[in-house]
Design the sequence.
C-alpha cells in the first residue's frame, strides 16, 4: 500500500551517551532510514557544538579541491568513485584490516593533508619565485645581447664627445672639442605593445635629446614555455612579449632628464638593467647569465618533480576500494561532515545526547538490529536507546515513498507540483498510465510513436552499458516514461490510422464512390473495425469528421478522468474519517459533474447510436441542447434526440438538481464547522503528547542503571521544552491572528486541518475571525468547482487541438516535400525533398511537438486531474544517508 | 455483423486481453523484483496501471467505433479523380 498512500512513519526518541554518539550515527547513516528533527533550530550554526569539527572538515575539503585542481594541471590521473555504496563497505573492511577504527579516519586524513598541503604550497611558492628569477635573467641576457648588436663594441666612451648618427645606429668617433657632455645609458625591457608609445614619450620628454633604440626579443619555443606555462606551446601571445630598449642621453647637468626617464620607465613597468663598465665584459657577462639560466632551469625542474611526487602519493590507488587516496579522503570527510551535521541536531546535556527522528515503521527491526550489532562490538560502553513515541499533533509527518526505477519518473512528475501530504492518495500511482495516455492522444501517429517506442526500447535494453556515459544520465532516468509514451502514441496512431499522414487500409473501406460525383456512399451496416476508415484521408471534408470525433472523445475522456479524481477525493475523505467533507463536498461535487457533463457524454453517445439516414437535417446539435438546459428550462426546441417528452423532463430535473448542488456545497460545511468549533471551546484538551507508545512493550535498553536516572531527567526536560515551545508558538499565533488578517487562507487551513486544536485562551476576535474565514474559504471552493467543471472540461479540448496540429503538420510536410515529387514522378524533386522531409520530421515533430504534447499532458495531469483531490502540502522524507551525501557532492 | 454485437465482441476481446496482461505483467514484475518486501507493492502498481491502460485503450477504440456506426456525413473528394 505504500505507493498508493505514503509509508507509515513512526516518531522515535533517541538517547545516547556522548562516547558512542559518533559510532551510533555512523551505523545509522549507513541504513539511510532516519531523518533527524532539529532540536536546536533556534541556534545559529556557529554556536552549535560540533561547528568546529564541521569547519575543520570544510577546510580539509578546500585543501582537497586544491589538490584536485593541481592534479589536473600537472596531468595526473585521479580515480573517482563510481559506486558509493560499494566504496563504503570496502572502506570498512579496509579499516578493520588495518586496525583503524572508523572514527579515527578523520584525524589521520586531516593530519596528513595538512602536512602535505603545507609542503605543496611551499613548493609552489618556490616555483613562482624561480620563474620570476628566470624571466629576469633571460631578459638581462637579451638586453646584453641586443646592446652588443646595436651599439657595437665601442659604445662606451665616457667623457669623450661622440656624435651619434641615429640612422645608422652606430657610433662614430669624431674629433669634436671636448665639452663636458656625458653620455649616459639606460637599458631595459618593456612590453612589446607599449614599445612604440614608450619611444614616443621618451622622445617628447627629452625634447629630442635622447636617442632610443628598440629591439624585439625573439622567443624560441623553449623560452615561451618558460614564460607561460599554461598557454599553448605553439602560439606566443603578443601580450607577453617584451622589447629591449636602449636609451642614450646626455647626462651631467641635466640630471633631471635622468629622473624623468626613470619615471617614464617606472610608469611603463619596465625592468631596468645595468650595463657593465667595460664593453668587453658584455660577452662574458652574457655567458655567465647563461650559466645562471641553466642552473635555475634545473632547480625549476627539481621543484616540479617534487610537486609531482607529492601529488602522485595522493593519487595512489587504494587496494580495496579502487579509488585514489585523495578521493578516499574526500569521501570519508564528506561522510564525517554529514555525521557531525546530524549530531548538531541533538540536544546536549553533559554526557548524554537526546533527540527525535522519523523513520518508516517497516524499517524498525533494522534500526534495532543495527544498535544491537554495535553494542556487541563495544562491550563496555552503552550505545543508548531508541524509544518510539507518539508524535505531537502539530508535527508535519514527512512523506516517504519507496521508489524503484520504473516509478521514479512518474513520482518526479507529481513531486514537481508538490509533495503529497502524509497518507493522502498518491497521484503518482495513476500518473503511471494517465499521463502517457494523454500524451498518446495528442501525439498519435504510428510512425512518430513508433520511432519514440524504438528509441525507448533501446534505452531500456541497453541501460547497463549506457549508464556509464554521464551525458545520458537524465534521459536514462526517464526511460520507462518514454517507453509508455511510445506505446500509447503508437496505439493511438493505429486508431487514428495515421502513419506520418499516410493511412492503412487493412480491412476494406466502408464507403464506396458514387459515379460521376465527388460524393461517396456509405455501405449499409459496415463499420471499419479498428480505427478510422481510410477513405477519410483523401476526402476534402475530413476535418469536419475528425474534429467532431476528437472533440467528443476529449470530452468523454476528460469527464471520466475528472470523475475519477473526485472519487479519489472521496477515498481520501473516508480514509481520514472526514465525514463532513464527504457529505458536504464529495457527494454534491460528483452529482453536479455527473448531471451536467456526464449527461453531455451520454448525449454524445446516444447521438452516435442512432441512425440518421435521411434525417440528417434534424440531427440536434449537442451544444445547443446543453445550452438550452439552463436557458430554456430543458426544452428541446422540437429537435429531440430521443423521446421528446422524456428528454424534456429529464433535462428539467437536471437543471433543478444542479442548482440544488450549489448551496449544498456552499452552506452546510461552514455552519457545522463553526458549531463544532464552539462546542470544543468548552473543553480543554490535555497537552499530554510525548508519551511512549506502549510502556509495557520491552523497550530496547542496553544502558547501565546509573545512567537511567540521568536519562529520565533529560526526557523530562525535553518534554518540558516541547511544551514551552508549543505555548510560545501559540502565543505568537494568537497575536498574529489578531494583528494580521492578511493571511487568512493559510491560518484557517491550519485551523481546519489540525485534528485537535489546542485551545487554551481563545480570544473572541479569534473565533469570529475563524467563522468568517471559513465561509469565505467555502465560497471560494464552491465557485472554483462549479466554474472549474466547465473550464476544466473545455480544457480537455487541448487533446483535440494538439492532435489536430500534429496531423496537419505531418500532412503539410509530406505533401510539400514528397507529395509533389511522387505525383509528378520527378526524381530530382524527391532527391532534394527527402532530406528536407526528414529534418522537418525529426526536429519539428519529434522534438518540438513531443515537448509540446508532454507539456500539455503535464498541465492536464496537474491542474485538471490533480486539482480535484490533491492537497500537496507535505514534506519529503530526507534521511541521513552517506550514499546520498557522497552522490550529491560529486 | 450488427454494430451493437461488434461493440460487445470488441469489449470482451479487450477485457480478455486486459486480464491476460494483468496476469502476465504481475508474474513478470514479481520475478524481476529484487527485494521480496516490495513484491506486494509492485503487484498493486502493476494491476492498477494495467487496468487503467486497458480502460483507456478500450475507451479510445469504442469511441472511434461508435463515431462511425451512423455517419452523418460521408467523405467527399475535392478534385476529380
Sequence:
Amino acid at each position: 500500500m505504500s505507493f498508493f498512500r505514503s509509508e507509515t512513519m513512526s516518531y522515535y526518541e533517541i538517547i545516547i551517551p556522548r562516547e558512542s554518539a559518533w559510532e551510533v550515527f555512523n551505523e545509522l547513516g549507513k541504513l539511510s532510514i532516519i531523518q533527524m528533527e532539529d532540536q536546536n533550530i533556534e541556534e545559529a550554526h556557529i554556536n552549535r557544538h560540533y561547528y568546529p569539527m564541521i569547519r575543520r572538515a570544510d577546510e580539509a575539503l578546500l585543501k582537497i579541491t586544491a589538490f584536485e585542481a593541481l592534479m589536473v594541471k600537472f596531468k595526473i590521473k585521479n580515480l573517482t568513485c563510481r559506486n558509493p555504496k560499494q566504496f563504503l563497505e570496502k572502506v570498512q573492511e579496509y579499516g578493520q584490516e588495518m586496525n583503524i577504527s572508523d572514527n579515527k579516519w578523520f584525524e589521520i586524513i586531516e593530519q596528513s593533508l595538512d602536512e602535505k598541503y603545507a609542503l605543496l604550497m611551499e613548493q609552489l611558492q618556490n616555483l613562482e619565485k624561480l620563474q620570476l628569477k628566470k624571466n629576469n635573467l633571460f631578459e638581462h641576457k637579451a638586453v646584453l645581447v641586443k646592446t652588443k648588436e646595436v651599439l657595437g663594441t665601442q659604445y662606451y666612451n665616457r667623457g669623450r664627445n661622440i656624435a651619434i648618427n641615429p640612422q645608422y645606429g652606430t657610433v662614430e668617433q669624431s674629433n669634436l672639442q671636448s665639452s663636458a657632455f656625458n653620455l649616459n645609458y639606460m637599458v631595459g625591457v618593456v612590453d612589446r605593445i607599449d614599445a612604440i608609445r614608450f619611444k614616443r614619450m621618451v622622445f617628447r620628454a627629452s625634447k629630442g635629446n635622447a636617442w632610443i633604440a628598440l629591439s624585439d626579443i625573439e622567443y624560441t619555443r623553449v623560452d615561451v614555455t618558460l614564460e607561460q606555462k599554461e598557454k599553448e606551446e605553439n602560439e606566443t601571445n603578443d601580450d607577453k612579449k617584451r622589447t629591449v630598449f636602449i636609451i642614450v642621453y646626455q647626462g651631467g647637468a641635466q640630471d633631471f632628464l635622468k629622473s624623468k626617464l626613470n619615471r617614464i620607465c617606472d610608469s611603463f613597468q619596465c625592468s631596468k638593467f645595468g650595463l657593465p663598465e667595460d664593453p668587453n665584459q658584455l660577452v662574458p657577462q652574457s655567458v655567465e647569465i647563461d650559466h645562471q639560466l641553466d642552473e635555475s632551469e634545473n632547480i625549476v625542474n627539481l621543484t616540479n618533480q617534487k610537486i609531482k611526487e607529492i601529488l602522485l602519493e595522493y593519487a595512489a590507488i587504494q587496494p580495496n576500494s579502487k579509488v585514489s587516496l585523495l578521493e578516499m579522503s574526500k569521501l570519508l570527510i564528506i561522510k564525517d561532515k554529514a555525521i557531525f551535521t546530524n549530531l548538531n541536531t541533538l540536544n546536549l546535556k553533559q554526557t548524554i545526547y537526546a533527540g527525535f527522528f522519523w523513520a518508516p515503521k517497516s524499517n524498525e527491526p533494522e534500526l534495532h538490529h543495527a544498535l544491537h550489532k554495535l553494542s556487541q562490538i563495544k562491550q563496555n560502553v552503552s550505545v543508548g536507546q531508541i524509544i518510539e513515541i507518539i508524535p505531537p499533533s502539530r508535527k508535519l509527518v514527512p512523506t516517504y515513498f519507496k521508489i524503484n526505477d520504473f516509478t521514479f519518473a512518474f513520482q518526479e512528475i507529481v513531486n514537481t507540483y508538490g509533495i503529497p501530504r502524509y497518507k493522502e492518495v498518491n497521484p503518482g500511482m495513476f500518473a503511471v498510465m494517465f499521463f502517457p495516455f494523454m500524451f498518446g492522444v495528442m501525439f498519435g501517429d504510428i510512425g512518430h510513436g513508433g520511432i519514440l517506442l524504438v528509441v525507448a526500447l533501446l534505452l531500456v535494453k541497453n541501460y547497463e552499458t549506457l549508464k556509464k556515459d554521464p551525458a545520458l544520465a537524465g534521459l536514462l532516468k526517464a526511460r520507462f516514461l518514454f517507453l509508455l509514451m511510445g506505446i500509447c502514441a503508437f496505439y493511438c496512431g493505429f486508431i487514428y490510422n495515421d502513419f506520418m499522414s499516410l493511412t492503412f487500409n487493412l480491412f476494406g473501406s466502408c464507403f464506396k464512390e458514387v459515379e460521376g460525383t465527388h460524393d461517396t456512399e456509405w455501405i449499409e451496416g459496415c463499420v471499419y473495425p479498428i480505427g478510422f476508415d481510410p477513405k477519410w484521408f483523401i476526402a476534402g471534408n475530413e476535418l469536419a469528421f475528425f474534429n467532431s470525433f476528437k472533440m467528443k472523445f476529449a470530452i468523454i475522456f476528460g469527464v471520466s478522468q475528472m470523475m475519477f479524481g473526485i472519487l479519489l477525493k472521496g477515498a481520501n475523505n473516508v480514509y481520514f474519517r472526514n465525514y463532513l467533507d464527504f457529505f458536504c463536498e464529495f457527494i454534491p461535487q460528483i452529482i453536479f459533474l455527473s448531471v451536467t457533463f456526464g449527461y453531455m457524454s451520454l448525449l454524445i453517445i446516444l447521438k452516435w447510436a442512432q441512425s440518421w439516414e435521411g434525417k440528417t437535417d434534424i440531427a440536434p446539435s449537442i451544444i445547443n441542447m446543453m445550452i438550452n438546459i439552463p436557458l430554456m428550462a430543458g426544452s428541446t426546441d422540437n429537435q429531440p434526440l430521443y423521446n421528446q417528452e422524456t428528454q424534456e423532463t429529464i433535462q428539467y430535473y437536471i437543471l433543478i438538481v444542479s442548482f440544488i448542488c450549489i448551496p449544498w456545497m456552499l452552506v452546510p460545511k461552514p455552519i457545522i464547522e463553526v458549531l463544532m468549533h464552539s462546542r470544543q471551546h468548552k473543553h480543554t484538551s490535555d497537552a499530554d503528547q510525548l508519551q511512549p507508545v506502549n510502556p509495557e512493550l520491552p523497550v530496547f535498553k542496553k544502558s547501565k542503571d546509573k545512567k537511567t536516572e540521568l536519562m529520565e531527567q533529560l526526557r523530562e526536560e525535553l518534554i518540558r521544552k516541547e511544551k514551552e515551545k508549543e505555548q510560545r508558538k501559540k502565543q505568537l499565533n494568537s497575536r498574529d491572528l489578531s494583528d494580521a488578517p492578511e493571511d487568512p487562507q493559510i491560518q484557517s487551513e491550519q485551523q481546519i486541518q489540525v485534528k485537535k486544536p489546542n485551545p487554551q485562551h481563545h480570544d473572541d476576535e479569534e473565533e469570529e475571525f475563524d467563522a468568517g474565514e471559513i465561509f469565505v474559504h467555502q465560497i471560494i471552493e464552491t465557485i472554483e468547482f462549479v466554474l472549474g467543471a466547465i473550464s476544466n472540461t473545455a480544457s480537455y479540448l487541448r487533446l483535440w487541438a494538439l492532435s489536430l496540429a500534429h496531423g496537419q503538420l505531418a500532412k503539410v510536410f509530406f505533401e510539400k516535400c514528397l507529395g509533389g515529387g511522387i505525383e509528378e514522378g520527378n526524381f530530382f524533386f524527391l532527391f532534394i525533398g527527402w532530406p528536407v522531409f526528414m529534418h522537418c520530421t525529426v526536429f519539428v515533430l519529434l522534438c518540438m511537438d513531443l515537448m509540446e504534447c508532454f507539456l500539455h499532458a503535464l498541465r492536464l495531469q496537474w491542474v485538471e486531474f490533480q486539482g480535484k483531490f490533491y492537497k500537496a502540502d507535505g514534506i519529503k522524507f530526507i534521511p541521513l544517508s552517506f550514499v546520498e551525501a557522497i552522490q550529491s557532492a560529486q | 455483423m450488427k454494430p451493437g454485437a461488434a461493440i460487445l465482441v470488441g469489449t470482451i476481446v479487450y477485457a480478455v486481453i486486459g486480464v491476460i496482461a494483468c496476469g502476465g505483467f504481475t508474474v513478470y514484475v514479481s520475478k524481476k523484483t529484487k527485494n521480496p518486501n516490495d513484491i506486494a507493492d509492485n503487484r498493486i502498481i502493476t494491476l492498477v496501471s494495467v487496468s487503467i491502460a486497458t480502460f483507456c485503450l478500450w475507451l479510445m477504440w469504442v469511441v472511434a467505433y461508435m463515431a462511425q456506426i451512423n455517419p452523418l456525413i460521408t467523405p467527399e473528394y475535392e478534385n476529380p479523380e
Residues 22 and 47 of chain B are 6 Å apart (CA to CA). The interface with chain A takes residues 2-3, 6, 10, 37-38, 41-42, 44-45, 48-49, 52-53, 56-57, 59-61, 63-78, 80-81 of chain B (CB under 8 Å). The radius of gyration of chain B is 20 Å.
